[in-house]
Amino acid sequence: MTEPAARSHPAPRSPRTLGRRRWLSPRSLRPRLVVAFLLVAAFSALITSALTFDKARDAILDRAESAATDELRAQLDSRAADLPYPPSSEDLLRLTVLLDRAGTPRGWRTHVSYQDGPLVPAEAPGDPGVITASLRSALLRENGAVAQRVTRPGGPWLVVGMPVTHTRQDDAPTRIVVYAEMSLRGEQADIHALVTAARYGAIPAVALALVPALIAAAHVLRPVRRLRAGAHRITEGALDTRIPVRGNDELADLITTFNTMADTIERDATERRRLEAGARRFAADVSHELRTPLAAMVAVTEVLDEDTAHLDPDTSEALRLVAEETRKLARMVDDLMEISRFDAGAAILHTDEVDVAAAVRRTLRARGWSDRVDTELAEGIRVVLDPRRFDVALANLVGNALRHGGSPVRVELRRADARVVLDIVDHGPGIDPAVLAHIFDRFYKGDSARTRSEGSGLGLAIARENVHLHGGTLRATTAPGEGTVFTIELPLVPPSTPPDPRRLDDIGTHGTDHDDAPASSGEIAHRRPEDQ
Amino acid sequence: MPRVLLIEDDPAVRRGVGIALRRRGHEVAVAPTGEAGLATLEDFRPDLVLLDLMLPGINGLEVCRRIRERHQLPIIILTARGDDIDIVVGLEAGADDYVVKPAGGEVLGARIKAALRRAVPADPEDGTAEDSVSARADRYGDLTVDRAALIVSKNGTDLALAPSELKLLLYLSASAGRVYSRDILLERVWEHSFAGDARLVDACVLRLRGKVEDDPRRPRYVQTVRGFGYRFGPL
User: Fold this and answer.
1) B127 confidence band (pLDDT: 50, 70, 90)
2) For chain B, does the N or the C end have fewer beta carbons within 10 angstroms?
3) pLDDT computed for residue A124 by the predictor
4) Could you tell me if A502 lies within 8 Å of chain B, comparing CB atoms?
């Protein structure tokens, strides 16, 4: 559980950069929300102005129409009385002149027809005219005033047709019809002004809608962003991450659910850690308790060995067995304690700068392996390491090679860049690839036929832990029938370990190095008294 | 035959180690507590003390300190592997060596033998054999090293050096100015054949400086050569 900081998978992008990159992406929530908001605003502005425009236009035109009709009627009422009946063409012409003069403010032109005859005055030649046949027939049907709007190239026109009733003829239809045609350009200008006003009103409305759109997007996105940041922190291992719940909406529900999930994860993790710690403590406690009786037993195994000669064969055999197994048990308990310390994170490096080749030779010599192991050691490589741990790791690997690999065993030492590489080569049968994957597992027995070997089953695991503690790597490669190579790679200087505060007090660093001193290793060798 | 006082609270370990040591020809007295051990020390007059650090009553460290106040006999701590702090503190309290439990009679015997040797055994490779220099009383600054009598004095006052301190000083001063690595010192002075624990050397150097140097923080006699080891002088 001390490792997660050193996890090797690529670091996830931070939520901040993610967020910034997202901002501009069209698939991100914020632009989508804003666009949707603006579309809604634009549609509503459009529909509102369309309806308003429609109503206003109708109102303008209706008023123009009724005003023109009323005025024409008033003029006719006052002038038709003077019209002789039946009227001559001159009478009709005179009437139109009078009417035109009276209608100057409206700018209308009048025509008159009698008994469905030709218009007086006639319309300008080439002008298709606005007094259409449909208007004339509608007039006959209605027997009253009829207004019609006609679109001409110059703009819309209004035509009002009005039959003249003659008082002298007992209000019988006189069959005289007056037509007044006038341009609606003024009204059209009013309507255009309306359209412009609607347009100029809609644009700022849509622009203003951007503000509530952004605010709304932010309101939605803020909890989303907090959720993402929270999930990110949990992924990074901060299991106590909780997100404050604000408001009472669906996003608040989501955050509540998220917090519940985080609770569960944290509880499970705590429980798992507690169980793991319990298991580790139990292993440590057991080995600790076994150690004291074993210490007493191991002390006397030698006595058993020596005296067996004088006893009867069975007893002597039994005693030898007890002695051997006692020593084995002691080694196993020792290894178990060692592993427990690694698990508890209590394993500490006591480093020194040493000549690796000399350290390898000493390990081999101390165990009487010098004759059984060939060496090819590059001289003069000095490495900062913990001599005891290095010895343990190397001895476990060489011992393993001698037991399982078969002679000859070779140890090769070379330097590669800023690392030192140590190969332990045997020429045994090699290791099954399925087994190779588990070879550093605890109590993993590679060969099922050899149910119990000389080792504790922890040797390779301990070797690897010791190498890792130095910031190095240990790996095994194998070729069936050719043998196995265990490779230790160590940095020349292990990653800095926390200094022992108790010892720093009485060291005191001052002065300079000796001129002939090599690169200092003092920073790592915390336990060394310093001077000069 | 060397007399060994074993101070150990666990009865089984006491019995086992007692048997193993007697078997190797030692005369053994055992004490279950620190108090009993200190009392036995005066009557039994052992040549060496084997001391468990985890003791009821006054603890092993205190026992170690009290023995050192009056006696310069070798003290070996019995400790469990991994109790690193115990080792460091024990060495600072004046112990000469330590043995990790469980240890067989062979290991115990070897450590006791090494600790009892009064001087570093002759080494044919470098001319530090004691015979050739034994007749001299060498002077180094304020220090006088009498290699025959195994006495070191400073300004005429005899220094009370623990056996490992004395041996280290004799060994280093025999070839003054020469640099020795910790490994070599462990092999020669402590006779550790396995890759030993450099803390033994470091703790011993610290204690030695406390006794021979004018200012232990600016040592003249036992100097550190960073990255290599220690040397005596040059003055």
Assistant:
1) very low
2) N
3) 66
4) yes
What's the whole-number mean pLDDT along residues A343-366? Answer: 85
Q: Where residue A28 falls among pLDDT bands split at 50, 70, 90? A: confident
The encoded tokens of residue B96 equal 């000469």
> Cα distance from B3 to chain A (closest Cα, Å)?
18
**Distance to chain B for A277, nearest Cα, Å:** 18
Distance between CA B30 and CA B20 in Å, rounded? 13
Do B17 and A299 count as a contact with CB atoms less than 8 A apart? yes
| pLDDT at residue B75, as a whole number | 94
Cis amide leading into A223 (omega within 30): no
Amino acid at B223: Q
At the top level of CATH, the class of B130-232 is mainly alpha
Assess whether A270 and A192 both reside in one domain. Answer: no
Q: Classify residue A519: in a domain, yes or no.
A: no
Evaluate the omega torsion of the peptide bond into residue A4 and state whether it is cis, within 30 degrees of 0.
no
Together in a domain, A36 and A96: yes
Give, in order, the Cα–Cα distances in Å from B105 to each of A351, A423, B154: 30, 35, 39
A 10 A CB-CB count for A103 gives 18
Q: Does the beta-carbon distance from A337 to B106 stay under 8 Å?
A: no
Same domain, A447 and A367: yes
Q: Is the pLDDT of residue B200 over 80?
A: yes
> What pLDDT score was predicted for residue A403?
85
Comparing A13 with A515, the larger pLDDT belongs to A13
Residue at token pair 């009276």: A102
- What's residue A44's pLDDT? 86
Between CA B228 and CA A521 the distance in angstroms is 9
pLDDT in tens, A187-222: 888 888 888 887 787 788 888 888 888 888 888 888
Does residue B164 register a pLDDT over 80? yes
pLDDT for the residue A525: 34
Examine residue A403 and state whether it is found in any structural domain, yes or no.
yes
> What DSSP string runs through A306-345?
HHGGGS-HHHHHHHHHHHHHHHHHHHHHHHHHHHHHHHTT
For A404, which DSSP code? I
Write out pLDDT tens, residues A143-170.
778 888 888 777 788 888 888 776 555 5
User: Which residues are B154's β-sheet partners?
Assistant: B143, B157
CA–CA dist A19, A23 (Å, integer): 6
Q: Are strands A483-491 and A419-425 parallel, antiparallel or unpaired?
A: antiparallel
How many domains does chain A divide into?
3
Give the Å distances, CA to CA, from B187 to A127, A356, A362, A385, B30: 131, 16, 10, 18, 30
A343 in contact with B at a CB cutoff of 8 Å?
no
- Mutant choice from A528, A530, A532 vs B, greatest count of B C-beta within 10 A: A528
Q: Residue A396 sits in which domain range? A: 352-504
Q: Answer whether A113's CB lies under 8 Å from A179's CB.
A: yes
Return the CATH number of the domain spanning residue range B3-116: 3.40.50.2300
Is the pLDDT at A45 greater than 60, yes or no?
Answer: yes
Q: Which helix (H) or strand (E) holds B30?
A: strand B27-31
Report whether A251 contacts A223 (CB < 8 A): yes
Domain finish residue from A325, A343, A361: A343
Residues A151 and A230 occupy one common structural domain? yes
Cα distance from B135 to chain A (closest Cα, Å)? 32
State pTM to two decimals.
Answer: 0.60
Q: Which residues of chain A are within 8 Å of residue B206 when distances are taken between CB atoms?
A: 506, 529
